[in-house]
Structure formats: C-alpha cells, structure tokens
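Exam revision sheet. Question 4 asks you to relate a sequence to its structure. Input first:
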Amino acid sequence: MEVNDISFENLPRAVAHLVSEIAEIKFLVERKEIPPIPQKRIPIDIVEACRIIGKAKPTVYTLVRKRLIPCYKNGKKIYFFEDELLEWITKGKKKTLQEIQSEAEVNFKKNCKKVVGEFNQNLQK
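Answer key, structure tokens:
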C-alpha cells in the first residue's frame, strides 16, 4: 500500500497493512539470535605460556628458536595466544596401542588384498 493512498475510506485497510507489517517485523526480531560476541584474543607472555604448557622457560625458548611452537615476536618480546598453545598441544597426541593395532590391521588387510590381486593377475598371464 502506498503512503499517498491513505484516505478515510482506506483507513481500515491501511491499519490492517500496518498491523501485518508490525507482526512481520516482530517475527524477524524474535527469530533473530543474538550474535555471539567474539572473544578478544589477548596475547600472553612467556611466563604464562610456560604455565599453560608445563615447560620451563629455556625449553620454551628452544621451541621458539626451532620454530616448533606458535609464537609472535615484536621487538625483543615473545607473545603467545592461549588457544594456539592448546591447539599445539592437542596436535602432539600420541596414539594408544589400540589405535596403532587397529591401523596396522587395516593396512595389513589393504596390502593383503593388493598382493592377492597382483598374484591372481600374474597367474592369469
């Protein structure tokens, strides 16, 4: 409905139109979720990094020098982010004996099928 179409005769239609518009706006507002507030990534110093990963300062400095640990350097200071350190720790997970055994069985079965297939091909030649 156009704004210029409102007259005394069209007033009920105009009010109905406004009510439907308000209902639609209300639905959109109620449905919209509050956007998550991104957490600020605050850099931490080497002392805090040592506490998080459970290593001594010289060990952390060695890891930094060898570029094995995620870090940032600004001037003479080294900075870390806690989430990156925790991710770095989880990437170094050692496999359990069960995981190693199940992988070995899967690889053995694959190789066994491959060898049997090659053997059958050689027999057919």
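Marking note for examiners. Residues 1-32 form one domain.
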